[in-house]
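Propose amino acids for all 226 sites.
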């Protein structure tokens, strides 16, 4: 057990219990323990602002020693699907660098403070404009697909579908990377918008929201598949 300093004696078991009993943290921690994917916005839109804050940080949260923790380095340096940028580049105007980068990188020519600030402001302004545009496109895409499937009755058990599961590789254009996996088979319809799918009888089942599914076609008309 890890003892923590404070007015009372706390240990990891006590902290874990407090997290599980917390109305905002409890569900997030339990879903992480069970290895579930982040729920869609429609599933948590009625939750508290605090809960939505944790939901937004889903990719940077992890379970360690039975405790829900935030992994700062991974979160800040990972390219996020919705924005196409790392949080570090959006907030600081530059990517994070490791100590080894400071040793191996070629020294840059010195520049005045005014020039540096001017370039940083321009870079941040351009980045924020680009991110806002991408977020708007992503929001419109999700709404369109959600409305389409909701209005057509959803998927049936046994139906073949593609799963939207983009995987970004640093240094490679997102347009050249594959975002659709499949085909998967709908195993169970848990409710109007949540399904249990499976790629093959030996594969692990996935529970996903309808906005990540599209009817199976061969090949997918818009993007590459795996």
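Proposal:
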């Amino acid at each position: 057990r890890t003892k923590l300093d404070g007015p009372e004696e706390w240990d990891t078991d006590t902290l874990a219990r407090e997290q599980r009993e917390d109305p905002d943290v409890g569900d997030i921690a339990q879903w992480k323990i069970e290895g579930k994917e982040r729920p869609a916005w429609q599933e948590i839109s009625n939750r508290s602002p605090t809960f939505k804050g944790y939901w937004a940080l889903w990719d940077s949260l992890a379970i360690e020693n039975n405790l829900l923790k935030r992994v700062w380095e991974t979160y800040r340096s990972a390219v996020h699907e919705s924005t196409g940028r790392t949080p570090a580049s959006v907030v600081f105007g530059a990517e994070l660098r490791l100590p080894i980068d400071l040793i191996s990188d070629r020294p840059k020519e010195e520049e005045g403070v005014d020039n540096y600030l001017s370039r940083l402001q321009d870079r941040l302004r351009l980045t924020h404009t680009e991110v806002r545009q991408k977020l708007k496109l992503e929001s419109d895409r999700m709404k369109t697909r959600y409305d389409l499937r909701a209005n057509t009755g959803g998927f049936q058990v046994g139906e073949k579908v593609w799963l939207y599961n983009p995987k970004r590789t640093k240094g490679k254009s997102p347009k050249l990377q594959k975002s659709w996996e499949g085909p998967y088979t709908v195993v169970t319809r848990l409710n109007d918008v949540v399904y249990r799918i499976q790629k093959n009888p030996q594969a692990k089942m996935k529970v996903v929201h309808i906005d990540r599914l599209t009817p199976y076609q061969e090949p997918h008309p818009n993007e590459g598949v795996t």
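Residues 110 and 116 are 10 Å apart (CA to CA). The helical segments are 12-21, 25-33, 41-44, 49-56, 72-77, 87-92, 99-104, 113-151.
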